[in-house]
Design a protein that fits this description.
Helix content of chain A: 25-40%
Number of helices of chain A: 15
Number of domains of chain A: 1
Bound molecules: zinc ion
Structural class of chain A: alpha/beta
Number of helices of chain B: 15
Strand order of the largest sheet of chain B: 2-6-7-10-1-11-12-13-14
Distance between the termini of chain A: 17 Å
Number of domains of chain B: 3
Strand order of the largest sheet of chain A: 1-3-2-4-6-5-10-11-9-7-8
Largest sheet of chain A: 11 strands, mixed
CATH superfamily of chain A: Amidase signature (AS) domain
Shape of chain A: globular
CATH architecture of chain A: Alpha-Beta Complex
Structural class of chain B: alpha+beta
CATH topology of chain A: Amidase signature (AS) enzymes
Radius of gyration of chain A: 21 Å
Largest sheet of chain B: 9 strands, mixed
Order of helices and strands of chain A: HHEHEHEHEHEEHEHEHHHHEHHEEH
Oligomer: heterodimer
Chain lengths: 485, 483
């Protein structure tokens, strides 16, 4: 049996019943990586030794009669923008090609405390800027469903590794769609939680007011289980919310009767792949058949989301990424004779094109004389976008849309046209601006490529998202489909 | 053709707050230490780390604001000030831009005996930067520079005054008063030599009677009261000279060169940084509850002005004396502590302002030191010994010297050295007679109406008793004998 293809809750049952060991699971995962990662290229770093040692530790606990937690002994992959003490953390950037943090991100600590077995660090778009993982400074990750296609991004490695069964689950980060869009492209479940539910401490910042860590999983139950573990207040992150974390798996009843689902008309626009539109319509029909009430909704400021995002995110990034100057850590140009030249060369060479483009955009937006017209205006429109959602959620329990306008595209197809690339996040970006949760779940295939359905929830409404997503998943079964690698 | 000019000065003062830990992390704020030992991933700005505001810093910011008669913000936030410099690990400084913790305050200085109110524009909180040590003369010309991040993230408040100061002297008085207030509230040590109090100045001149301000220059790098005074005087003269010669003052930043005693141009307005301030998204805005503000207000100690009034009203000290003593917290605290042991406030204040200040200024001691050789009780005891007639004022000065050197109590010194004043007539009368016999001429002078001659005779008796005779008694006995 290939243990690596199972879900965390299936493996947990087998561990508890002593049918398998954590070491066996971990070995299957690494066997799979050996077999397919030449094609997928999901990893920047593998931590096989530590993983097997951790697995053996868990096995010892099990044979010692200890009760184990739901994620104990289960392999996980971490996006390479989350700090792992003693393990290379690169953001897929030349700038951090040699950075080994002396501390771990809070999520990593939480997973370690829950007994997780860390398999390795996943490739990504450099500093999480991109939608295809083509912006990694090391190599592109490929879509397991068609290796000529991108896995999406920026959490491409995290999504692809789950889809290719190179891990059981993974963590990604989502600033404008970086979990949901690759989840959609790779046919897995991906959750962007409510802003503030998962600590950002140790997540290398792209845009602090938008960044949020979330899980990739093979089904909704796993997704809810992982969220159980990583959610919660962290005193090390001032923006983290104080709230009660319920057991999200207890909400998965399969019952969506009477659930009020809004269909935001602004999300069903020209330019969206007809097959994608049809699959989302099928999903709406399915929900109605299960007893949910689906009606048209409106989010009138949707068209401004993309421009607002591309002012706020680069503005924050221009400041967040200022610290990479070659003085203290990471890449440094050694040829410069003076400080200013060293700064310039280090940053010119250390950062890739898209990162430099966004730093320039953001620097411009914050400059004196432009601040009011760009950054401040964007903040005001951001408030309007948030209010759109507040109003919609007075009437609806959740909203439904495609995750991305198209299935996975081919390498190079959008690489030279930033605007086309940015448009693949057009349905996901508003949620980050509003701080609300969204989940992408598989809802069918277009020409053999997976298509994702996005459900959007109220702030802290992850429970409702899980419940609806779980009901849909169980009644359709797309999540069981596996790529042929 | 000489025009009279009015000087316009505003000060920007940075003061380190004496919290235990830094503003956004748990690292120690202790001064000194080996380079880069009081640091952690947060204050080093390592990737992925996040700041968490030290509540004590906000409390101290509010405290300083209240002591400076400011309005405390109900809603305040931190912003990022973006600029590249290797002493700044994130290449931005977390500071406050448009919503500072406190605004619209004032403090009072005493100009030629008249109180003058100087407006405080704002008080805001921010993090300090690190310290650079260049191999060469400047960072640009150096092969390498070394950086110590111990000071990075130490909390600062910046206090910006209105352009209300009209001379270098007023600026110094303002800074002295500000330093005293910050010390009284115990939010800062204000040690200029350790860089915990730093001062920049905006300076301009205008013909007397003109309403509009002249073009100002910003002066940086003044690290003592003397430097502030000298730099301002130099800059005022320089600006007047430029204008008198038909030139125009250029808006620029100038630095004070202590060794050469001149100000030098650092950068022009055109070269000024665009700091691209924006709200720090890692820190949520602060809502400052009125309950908290009131609580802090109640906890404020007696401030210099109130203390001064108390000294004048309760102890009858002259205004000037009260001003001098309250000007430095440790001296004022010392005086207050001494008053527990003597009722003679006037005499104690004279000793404090005279011998004690002289001793403190000429030694490494601070009057607040645990091991200060002359505890307040000892000085009060000395005052009491004089009052009781046990020693003379002259002997007392000798005893003070001994107290400073040995740390002993004055009574013990007097006892051990046999310095007790002789107030016994029988013991003095023989010496008086001897002096009279030896000095017929002064005796004659006195008898013929020269009052001053008695001074010489008193001196002779004092000399013969090694200063121990009670001078009043000697005087009385001499007069009786010469009648
Ligand atoms: Zn620190």
């Amino acid at each position: 049996m290939q243990l690596n293809s199972l879900t965390a809750h299936e493996l947990h049952d087998k561990l508890v019943n002593k049918e398998v060991s954590s070491v066996e699971i971990t070995e299957d995962v690494f066997k799979r990586i050996d077999q397919v990662d030449d094609k997928v290229k999901a990893f920047v770093t593998l931590t096989k030794e530590q993983a097997l040692a951790k697995a053996a530790e868990v096995d010892a606990r099990i044979s010692g009669g200890d009760k184990i937690g739901p994620l104990e002994g289960i392999p996980v992959v971490i996006k390479d923008n989350m700090c792992t003490e003693g393990v290379l953390t690169t953001c897929s950037s030349k700038m951090l090609h040699n950075f080994v943090p002396p501390y771990s991100a809070t999520v990593v600590e939480k997973l370690q405390a829950a007994g997780a077995v860390i398999v390795g660090k996943a490739n990504m778009d450099e500093f999480a800027m991109g939608s295809s993982t083509e912006n990694s400074r090391f190599f592109s990750t490929r879509n397991p469903w068609d290796t000529d296609c991108v896995p999406g991004g920026s959490s491409g490695g995290s999504a692809a590794s789950v889809a290719a069964d190179e891990t059981i689950y993974s963590l990604g980060s989502d600033t404008g769609g970086s979990i949901r869009q690759p989840a959609s492209f790779c046919g897995v479940v991906g959750l962007k939680p409510t802003y503030g539910t998962v600590s950002r401490y140790g997540l290398i910042a792209y845009a602090s007011s938008l960044d949020q860590i979330g899980p990739f999983a093979k089904d909704v139950r796993d997704c809810a289980q992982i969220f159980n573990v990583i959610a919660g207040h962290d005193p090390k992150d001032s923006t983290s919310a104080e709230f009660e974390v319920p057991d999200y798996t207890s909400i998965l009843t399969g019952d969506v009767k009477g659930l009020r689902i809004g269909i935001p008309k602004e999300y069903f626009i020209e330019g969206t792949d007809p097959k994608v539109l049809q699959l989302v319509q099928d999903a709406i029909n399915k929900f109605e058949a299960m007893g949910a009430v689906c009606e048209e909704a409106t989010l009138p400021h949707t068209e401004y989301a993309l421009p607002v995002y591309y002012l706020i995110a680069p503005a924050e990034a221009s400041s967040n990424l200022a610290r990479y100057d070659g003085v203290r850590y990471g890449y440094r140009d050694e040829t410069a004779e003076d400080m200013i030249t060293m700064f310039k060369r280090t940053r010119s060479e250390g950062f890739g094109t898209e990162v430099k483009r966004r730093i320039m955009l953001g620097t411009y937006a914050l400059s004196s004389g432009y601040y009011d017209a760009y950054y401040l205006k964007a903040l005001k429109v951001r408030t309007l976008i948030r209010q759109d959602f507040d109003r919609a959620f007075e009437k609806f329990d959740l909203l439904i849309s495609p995750t991305s306008p198209t299935p996975a595209f081919r390498f190079g197809e959008k690489a030279d046209d930033p605007i086309q690339m940015y448009l693949s996040d057009v349905f996901t970006i508003s949620l980050n601006l509003a701080g609300i949760p969204g989940i992408s779940i598989p809802c069918g295939f277009s020409n053999g490529l997976p298509v994702g359905l996005q459900l959007m929830g109220k702030p802290f409404g992850e429970g409702t998202l899980f419940k609806a997503a779980h009901a849909f998943e169980q009644s359709t079964g797309y999540y069981k489909m596996k790529p042929n690698l | 053709m000489s025009t009279d000019y009015e000087v316009v000065i505003g000060l920007e003062v940075h003061s380190e707050l004496k919290t235990e830990s830094k503003i956004f992390c748990c690292s120690s704020t202790e001064f000194g230490g080996d380079p880069n030992t009081h640091v952690c991933p947060v204050c080093l700005g390592l990737p992925g780390t996040l700041p968490v505001t030290n509540n004590k810093v906000v409390e101290f910011g509010i405290k300083a604001g209240l002591a400076l008669n400011c309005e405390i913000a109900e809603f305040s936030k931190f912003d990022r000030k973006n600029y590249y410099y290797p002493d700044l690990p994130k290449n931005y400084q977390i500071s406050q831009y448009d919503l500072p913790i406190a605004e619209h305050g004032y403090l009072e200085i005493n100009v030629d005996g008249n109180p003058k109110r100087i407006g405080i524009t704002r008080v805001h909180m921010e993090e300090d930067a690190g310290k650079l040590l260049h191999q060469g003369a400047t960072i640009i010309s150096s092969k390498y520079s070394m950086v110590d991040y111990n000071r990075t993230g130490v909390p600062l408040i910046e206090i910006v005054s209105e352009p209300d100061l009209r001379s270098a002297e007023e600026a110094v008085l303002y800074l002295q008063k500000l330093k005293a207030i910050l010390e009284y509230t115990e939010v800062s040590d204000c040690k200029m030599e350790e860089g915990s109090l730093r001062c920049d100045a905006n300076v301009s001149i205008r013909p007397v009677g003109q309403k509009e301000f002249g073009t100002r220059t910003e002066l940086k790098n003044m690290s003592s009261f003397r430097a502030l005074q000298k730099a301002l005087e130099y800059e005022i003269d320089r600006q007047i000279e430029v204008v008198e010669e038909g030139g125009r003052v250029i808006q620029e930043t100038r630095t004070w060169d202590e060794n050469k005693g001149i100000t030098l141009s650092m950068r022009s307005k055109e070269e000024a940084h665009d700091y691209r301030y924006f709200p720090d998204p890692d820190l949520v805005p602060m809502v400052i509850s009125r309950d908290w503000v009131n609580e802090i207000k109640e906890s404020l100690p007696e401030l210099p002005d109130a203390r001064k009034a108390r000294y004048v009203q309760e102890y009858g000290l002259p205004e000037y004396d009260a001003e001098v003593i309250t000007g430095v917290k440790e001296i004022s605290d010392y005086f207050d502590a001494g008053l527990e042991f003597t009722k003679n406030a006037k005499a104690l204040s004279n000793w404090v302002m005279g011998e004690l200040l002289k001793f403190v200024n000429s030694s490494d001691h601070s009057a607040a030191d645990e091991d200060f050789p002359i505890p307040p009780a000892n000085l009060a005891e000395l005052v009491e010994l004089i009052d009781k007639g046990e020693i003379s004022g002259k002997i007392a000065k000798e005893v003070f010297k001994d107290m400073a050197e040995s740390g002993k109590k004055p009574a013990a010194i007097v006892e051990a050295k046999g310095l007790k004043q002789i107030s016994d007539e029988g013991a003095i009368i023989a010496i008086v007679d001897e002096v009279l016999a030896k000095n017929p001429q002064p005796v004659e002078d006195f008898r013929s109406g020269n009052e001053r001659a008695i001074g010489f005779l008193v001196g002779q008796v004092m000399k013969a008793t090694r200063g121990q005779a009670n001078p009043e008694l000697v005087n009385k006995l001499l007069r009786e004998r010469m009648q």
